[in-house]
Amino acid sequence: MSKLAYLGPQGTFCEAALRLLEPDVERLPCANVGVALDAARDGAADGAVVPLENSVEGAITQTLDELAGGRPLHITGELLLPVEFSLLVRPGTELAQIKRVITHPAAHTQCRGFIEREMPGAVVIAASSTAAAAQEVASPESPYDAAISPAIAGEYYGLDAIASNIGDRSDTVTRFIKVNRPGRLPEPTGADRTSLVAFLRDDHPGALLEMLSEFAVRGVNLTRIESRPTGDGIGRYFFHFDFEGHIADARVGEAVAGLHRLCDDLRFLGSYPRADRVPTQIKEGTTDTDFAEAAEWLGKIRAGLA
User: Fold this and answer.
1) pLDDT of the residue at 56
2) CB-side exposure of 58: number of CA atoms within 13 Å?
3) Of the residues 12, 63, 76, 176, which is catalytic?
4) How confident is the model at residue 273 (pLDDT cuts 50, 70, 90)?
5) How many CB atoms lie within 10 A of CB 238?
6) 257 shares its domain with 158
7) What number of other Cβ atoms are within 10 A of residue 230's Cβ?
8) Is residue 289 annotated as part of the catalytic site, yes or no?
């Protein structure tokens, strides 16, 4: 049986995503995203499932940075998981008694309205995950009165949900990705996404525009772009790109090759089926057939046959 690492402990949204993506695998809970990805790199697990972005909070920066560095990993699948938070307490605790709350920073942001409205005097402390917060509150010696966590975490750790669905938005979604060591890519489906990380060769006016133009002139639609600091000084950044299509598509392959010419380094993160199954809209003149016919025409020109 294959094994997948994930952001633990038991009861995280990440575990829920893993169960939906790969219901029959062995699960390996890890203390943080970096440990989960290293388990995949080192062979302690066959792959990993980690969060990448949230519709309210935005990118999970630790995941972005971990994918940009270290030994390469490829994204082979993704899942969009609706997120609902509960306020979990030890049995017998009442809302008025809650003075110290523990949760993940992303959950804090997404439940800020509830906290300010229902617990205006409560202090909120950061945890490594929402399930770790529930695990902490379950201890009789815990200094915390409540955890903001998934309801399933309450079932794991014997906590009561004193309030449910407490997020400020009811339509919040987190995107999770499955990663594996580099190998055979998933086959194109017509509803694919490709991800990569680009490192600028040098900082100059129009550098970002030059990269974006490689996509635009070939009709490749970006679905996400994020800048992250390289750590080499203020103003030095690398870029995460997600875009429609598969590396096997001619327009995508040419765009990636064009970026390779421009960049100091380009890390391919994978081509994989989109979770929403939305088919790629291909601009006129950018189909594989169009590129093949253009290459054939150019070959004739170069051979003096046209």
Assistant:
1) 85
2) 7
3) 176
4) very high
5) 23
6) no
7) 14
8) no
Q: CB neighbours (10 Å) of residue 250?
A: 18
What is the CATH classification number for the domain harbouring 284? 3.30.70.260
| Same domain, residue pair 90 and 26 | no
Pairing of strands 47-54, 58-59: antiparallel
Go through 148-168 and write b for each residue having 16 or more CB atoms within 10 A of its CB, e for each that does not.
bbbbbbbebbebebbbeebbb
Domain carrying residue 5: 1-82+170-183
Q: pLDDT confidence of 170, banded at 50, 70, 90?
A: confident
**Measured CA distances, 90 to 102, 135, 139, 147, 298 (Å):** 13, 11, 9, 10, 72
- For 125-151, how does the pLDDT look when each residue is reduced to its tens digit (9 = 90+)? 999 889 999 999 999 999 999 999 999
**Which residue is catalytic, options 174, 194, 280, 286?**
174
